[in-house]
Specification:
The chain is of the alpha/beta class and 272 residues long. It has 8 helices and 7 strands, in the order αβααββββαβαβααα. The strands form 2 sheets. Strands 2-1-5-6-7 form a 5-stranded parallel beta sheet, sandwiched between helices. It has a two-stranded antiparallel sheet with strand order 3-4.
Amino acid sequence: MRAMIRLARLLPALLLAATLAAPAIAQTRPKLADSGVDKPASAIYIGNSFFYYNNSLHNHVGELIRSADPGFRHRGTSVTIGGSGFDWHDVDSYFRPNAIGRYSFDRNNNVVFNKLDKLFDVAILMDCSQCPLHPQLKDTFREYAKKHADTVRRHGAKPVFFMSWAYQDVPSMTAGLAEAYTQAGNDNDAFVIPAGLAFARSIAAKPDLNLYAPDKRHPSLAGTYLAACTTYAALFKNSPVGNKYTAGLDAATAAHLQAVAWETVQAYYAKP
């Protein structure tokens, strides 16, 4: 009897340990394994502060691209509203001519006027951090996932959904977010970047590496770098392992995050 009581007391801890040790995967498999653009020359990131923390996700992705292929010119633009969800953004207006993307800055801070055949190859969209799961907002997530995917396609770009990560103190969010974004991607023929699954995989492998800001939901620099490596690996189908751009992180940390990103991408898109 005492042995059974001890086992009952230990069981929750054992289950938690097993959960942390096993990399999270999405229950539903993604329909698309690529964005439909072999090598995106331009991307617009439409979201919130999860994107703009730490000098913006799109800048880190751009540095990874430049490091891997110095001769390739990629233009990234970020349109973010703090705290926003899908329904806060007027995506149609982001594609109006002679506005967003008309000019950018080079590495020497010179203004460069862009000659554009089209504004963007891909549009990367993220809802608010709780919206896909929130009982009062999850229907809005599904509604605007379709609305924005249709809008993006109408302007000649490919829609991409960015799967966000769980809060640091609510790891159970991972599975729900993975399922919601994967299902939305399948419903709308949209590619999905599995950043949230990369966070879970890193935490399982290296729990002492903090991927979060003090508020337990925004990314630390390591979290942003992991999200950038995952975005790069997913969009370009190229491993970030060995990439010389490390965002100022120490070599061992960067190498771990690069490997996690590549492992996550390979696992997420693998055929069953």
